[in-house]
């Protein structure tokens, strides 16, 4: 577990953290943030479903979340982090490849 991160889900074999960055990304006349899992996409999809996030919000390794849903995600246990920390978590989990390793 990362220092300062609280686990939001737990099964007998797996614990995970959902991370969310600030809603600073403009698109479609609103601000957006990104939501990821530090472990797997399965947990990310389950968390997004609980929030009512449509599948179309999934972008390969993260969900784009409108600013209006961000507070609900945090209330459900998502951990607020910087965008840099969020991307590093994706790399560490193997859910995103670093540009230098892409073919």
Could you explain the architecture of this structure?
The protein is α+β, with helices and mostly antiparallel strands. The protein has one domain (9-101). 30% of the residues lie in helices and 23% in strands. It has helices spanning 41-51, 67-75, 83-93; strands at 9-10, 15-16, 18-20, 25-27, 30-37, 63-66, 79-80. Strands 3, 4, 5, 6 and 7 form a five-stranded mixed β-sheet that branches. Strands 1-2 form a two-stranded antiparallel ribbon. Residues 1-7 and 10-14 have low confidence and may be disordered.
Short structural summary:
With 103 residues, this protein is an alpha+beta fold.
SSE topology:
Elements: E1 9-10, E2 15-16, E3 18-20, E4 25-27, E5 30-37, H1 41-51, E6 63-66, H2 67-75, E7 79-80, H3 83-93
Parallel strand pairs: 3-7
Antiparallel strand pairs: 1-2, 3-5, 4-5, 5-6
């Amino acid at each position: 577990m990362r220092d300062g991160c609280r686990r939001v889900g737990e099964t007998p074999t797996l614990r995970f953290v959902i991370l969310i960055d600030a809603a600073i990304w403009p698109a479609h006349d609103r601000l957006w943030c990104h939501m990821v899992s530090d472990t797997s996409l399965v947990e990310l999809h389950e968390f997004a479903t609980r929030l009512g996030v449509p599948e179309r919000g999934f972008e390969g390794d993260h969900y784009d979340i409108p600013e209006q849903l961000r507070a609900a995600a945090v209330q459900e246990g998502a951990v607020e982090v910087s965008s840099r920390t969020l991307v590093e978590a994706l790399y560490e989990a193997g859910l995103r490849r670093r540009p230098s390793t892409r073919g």
